[in-house]
Specification:
Pfam families: Peptidase_M28 (PF04389). InterPro entries: M28_fam, Peptidase_M28. This is Peptidase M28 domain-containing protein. The protein is of the alpha/beta class. The protein has one domain: Zn peptidases (Aminopeptidase, 3-Layer(aba) Sandwich), CATH 3.40.630. Helices cover 27% and strands 14% of the residues. It contains 12 helices and 10 strands. The protein has an 8-stranded mixed sheet with strand order 2-3-5-4-6-9-7-8, sandwiched between helices. Helix 1 crosses helix 6. It is globular and about 60 Å long.
């Protein structure tokens, strides 16, 4: 892990941004060269033979409501550099949650198209592909997805990823709950976790687990004999190099890009809230943070990760942790922020998890409160009512390794905390129209503003040396 975060912060520089209070539509200037990170990360220039999947045509443009308040800036005396509507998460939700992407299952052509869309956006603002282990496309980390033989043959025969995906009553997934990866580099603790999940799955399916050949635990090759490969999924990532003395430390900002695909009749689960909203918030934060880095206002580096196969059981995030890319080992990570389902309910409340595996607050508790107060219109309620979800979201893969994790979530049905998930959770009516009905699209815009402040504080905090 990176050096310990001290509670005292040095004076912060503001990040110029398109906010929910101040929207601008002028186009950002095109960058001719990507930012290069001299510590071994390749530039994002075109590479021979590197082809992106063909993106489906964007859906017809909806009449999205504008941000709640618009304050035009006189052209003769601009206070901030203009940015495009790339900074509005609603633009990205509209594409990611369109029928053309067919529910973004892992794996699927829809998820590949979403990955290509995210990558093109990151390259536009000069972010670099950090995965030198994949020279063909360093913006991607690919992995094979498996499921247990016999666990869901009905769903496989129908061409759907999981027959029971129509309605989930509990948020998130346990690690490897409905899918997993398998390779020889799998760490021992992950292999142990997978063995336990195999036994639980077989018991739930009313089948007997194949015993280990020797000892108490099955090896990778033994598990492959009782599993079937369902295809290749992808984590999409982009690095924004820091410019300060702590540039080798990294703040990881993540959201799962996948959803649950289609039903047996081919009808899509578009997942506008889950999790086009979180993925779009990350995308919308890119232009402002790139401008901050260009102006020398970003000390630590920021790694954006849009994970795949989260809906299978946090597979993409676990694979990332188990297969660190060069320069982003656990020792380099100085904090992790996960954004999942941030589009619904009213725009004055948010729920967060800012505790470790023992339930103790981590350094993000003070950061979130400070970041909220920096907003022109702070959230009325930052509820800490979802600790039960701490181990059922992508941040858990990092939390088990001792990293400080912040989880941002839209909240539950009770505005003061507690209650139920949105009724459309994992249903086919989780569409962008529901976000518009709830808050006019202002909730994801405000979450983006808060996220920018959180990243700015975390990336520019003072540190104290770790004890040896």
């Amino acid at each position: 892990m990176a050096s310990k975060i001290n509670d005292s912060s040095r004076p912060l520089t503001s990040v110029s941004r398109l906010s929910s209070q101040d929207a601008r539509s002028a186009e950002a200037k095109t960058r001719n060269r990507p930012i290069a990170w001299k510590d071994g990360f390749e530039s994002s220039g075109a590479r021979p033979g590197s082809k992106l999947p063909q993106l489906p045509a964007p859906p017809p443009v909806l009449s999205l409501p504008p941000p709640a308040t618009t304050t035009p800036v006189p052209p003769e005396a601009p206070t901030e550099p203009p940015v495009s509507d790339d900074s509005d998460p609603m633009k990205h939700i509209e594409y990611l949650a369109s029928d053309a992407l067919q529910g973004r299952d892992s794996p699927s052509a829809g998820l590949d198209a979403a990955s290509a869309y995210v990558q093109a956006h990151a390259e536009k603002y000069g972010l670099v592909g950090p995965n030198s282990n994949n020279p063909e496309n360093p913006f991607q980390q690919k992995f094979n997805v498996y499921s247990w033989l016999g666990a869901d043959k009905a769903g496989e025969a129908a061409g759907a990823a999981h027959a029971g995906h129509a309605e989930h009553k509990q948020f998130g997934h346990e690690t490897f709950q409905e899918g997993f990866y398998l390779d020889e580099k799998m760490p021992k603790d992950t292999l142990k976790l997978l063995n336990q999940q195999y036994e639980q799955t077989m018991k739930a399916a009313g089948q007997s687990a194949v015993p280990a050949r020797s000892g108490k635990q099955r090896g990778v090759e033994e598990l492959k004999q009782v599993a079937t490969a369902t295809g290749q999924a992808v984590n999409t990532m982009a690095m924004l190099p820091g410019t300060g003395p702590h540039k080798d430390e990294v703040i990881v900002v993540m959201a799962h890009l996948d959803h649950v695909g289609v039903d047996r009749k081919g009808n899509a689960y578009n997942g506008a809230d889950d999790n086009a909203s979180g993925s779009a918030v990350l995308m919308a934060a890119v232009p402002e943070l790139a401008e901050a880095a260009k102006n020398g206002k970003l000390d630590r580096s920021v790694l954006f990760v849009w994970t795949g196969a989260e809906e299978k059981g946090l597979v993409g995030s676990q694979y990332f942790v188990d297969h660190p890319i060069p320069g982003v080992e656990l020792k380099n990570i100085a904090g992790v922020i996960n954004t999942d389902m941030v589009g619904r309910w009213d725009d004055q409340r948010l729920s967060v998890v800012d505790t470790n595996t023992k339930g103790q607050p981590n350094y993000f508790r003070d950061v979130v409160d400070q970041a909220n107060q920096q907003l022109a219109d702070p959230f009325d309620r930052i509820n800490r009512d979802i600790n039960v979800y701490r181990d059922r979201q992508d941040g858990a893969s990092f939390g088990r390794k001792g990293e400080d994790v912040l989880f941002l979530f839209e909240g539950l049905s009770n505005p003061e905390g507690g209650g139920d998930l949105i009724p459309e959770y994992h249903r086919q009516d989780d569409d962008i129209e529901k976000i518009i009905e709830d808050n006019g699209g202002n909730k994801p815009r405000r979450v983006k503003d808060l996220l920018l402040n959180v990243i700015n504080i975390a990336a520019n905090r003072t540190t104290e040396p770790q004890p040896k």
